[in-house]
């Protein structure tokens, strides 16, 4: 289901990617010890309290012990994801280094936060608790896709090629395949790639694993029971699609992979969800969308403009307003068909006290 072809890639780039992958694998490896250390800090702070204050929270240490147990259960799943990690390291990617997990001192809090975010992504994409977010973000995309191709017969749908850049853990692409279309997801993050490979290829039954995504922060928690509630994944069996379905995931940077000549006018539809603001140059994304779509092809989008590289030292970042983005889309050669605003959260704790709500711009447009 995954494609990862290093042929023709610059050796220096290959070695840099291999180094980054090892760092990601290190982060998975160190999750348990890092999380337990953070939780133990809370014990230290508790023991520093006056006795009269301890008396107000007699169950506090019990809660911390339960968090320790939840960390261990998370790690049980992460170890299984980690077991497949070396599948992403071809011989060409090793760069002359050994295949052991090393350089553990290089794992930062930022790296660990990426992993914690990936654990929460499982909820958004593959748990019953993520259904409200999927209904808000994915359903309008799927409805628009089905409406545009409503006159295509069920038998012909398999010939409609849909591309999902920034596919995350693969649920949106999976849902598109369930509608009968051919679909390819593309993802750049190794955290997402390792985890999506696991969920799409290593699952044997619904609710096979339990995770605890909200134990890493004690802020904005209403109930300890909510914080410690197990989330069961997946809510649907990924192998439930017909065996002859055309479904694949491609690893790599969107611009590098789909900017190549072989993708010109190859795709019938592009579906982007919380993706276009990952660009260093959003205009380049839009140009590639236009180039690789067939004449009359459809682009469906939803998401905010939270530019990922804004204020990133040493990184290029072009940040346009929504008006500028839409003007550029028209100038590049798209005709808008539908535009509206959709409100949705993203990997939020459904029972927490804090929720960021994005006013996402939704549109469908057609290549002239």
TrEMBL record:
<keyword id="KW-0808">Transferase</keyword>
<keyword id="KW-0489">Methyltransferase</keyword>
<dbReference type="GO" id="GO:0032259">
    <property type="term" value="P:methylation"/>
</dbReference>
<dbReference type="InterPro" id="IPR012901">
    <property type="entry name" value="CARME"/>
</dbReference>
<comment type="similarity">
    <text>Belongs to the carnosine N-methyltransferase family.</text>
</comment>
<keyword id="KW-0949">S-adenosyl-L-methionine</keyword>
<dbReference type="InterPro" id="IPR029063">
    <property type="entry name" value="SAM-dependent_MTases_sf"/>
</dbReference>
<protein>
    <recommendedName>
        <fullName>carnosine N-methyltransferase</fullName>
        <ecNumber>2.1.1.22</ecNumber>
    </recommendedName>
</protein>
<dbReference type="GO" id="GO:0030735">
    <property type="term" value="F:carnosine N-methyltransferase activity"/>
</dbReference>
<dbReference type="Pfam" id="PF07942">
    <property type="entry name" value="CARME"/>
</dbReference>
């Amino acid at each position: 289901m995954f494609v990862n072809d290093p042929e023709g890639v610059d050796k220096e780039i290959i070695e840099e990617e291999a180094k980054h992958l090892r760092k990601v694998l290190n982060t998975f490896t160190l999750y348990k010890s890092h999380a337990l250390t953070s939780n133990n800090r809370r014990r230290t702070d508790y023991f520093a309290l006056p006795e009269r204050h301890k008396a107000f929270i007699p169950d506090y240490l019990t809660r911390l012990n339960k968090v320790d147990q939840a960390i261990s259960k998370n790690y049980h799943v992460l170890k299984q994801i980690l077991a497949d990690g070396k599948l992403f390291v071809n011989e060409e990617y090793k760069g002359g280094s050994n295949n052991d997990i090393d350089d553990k001192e290089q794992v930062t809090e930022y790296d660990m936060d990426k992993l914690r975010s990936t654990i929460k992504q499982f909820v958004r994409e593959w748990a019953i608790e993520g259904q409200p977010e999927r209904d808000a973000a994915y359903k309008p995309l799927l409805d628009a896709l089905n409406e545009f191709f409503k006159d295509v017969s069920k038998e012909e749908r398999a010939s409609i090629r849909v591309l999902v850049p920034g596919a995350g853990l693969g649920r949106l692409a999976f849902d598109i395949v369930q509608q009968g279309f051919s679909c390819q997801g593309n993802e750049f993050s190794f955290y997402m790639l390792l985890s999506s490979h696991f969920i799409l290829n290593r699952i044997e039954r619904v609710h096979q694993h339990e995770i605890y995504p909200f134990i890493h922060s004690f802020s904005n928690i209403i109930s300890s029971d909510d914080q410690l509630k197990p989330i069961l994944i997946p809510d649907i069996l990924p192998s439930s699609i017909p065996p002859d379905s055309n479904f694949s995931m491609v690893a790599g940077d969107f611009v590098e992979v789909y900017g190549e000549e072989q993708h010109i006018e190859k795709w019938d539809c592009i579906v982007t969800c919380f993706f276009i603001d990952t660009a260093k140059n959003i205009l380049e994304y839009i140009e590639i969308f236009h180039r690789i779509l067939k004449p009359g092809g459809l682009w469906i989008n939803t998401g905010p403009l939270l530019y990922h590289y804004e204020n990133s030292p040493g990184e290029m970042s072009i940040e346009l307003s929504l008006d500028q983005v839409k003007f550029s889309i028209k100038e590049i050669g798209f005709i808008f068909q539908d535009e509206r605003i959709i409100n949705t959260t993203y990997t939020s704790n459904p029972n927490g006290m804090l929720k960021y709500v994005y006013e996402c711009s939704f549109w469908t447009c057609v290549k002239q």
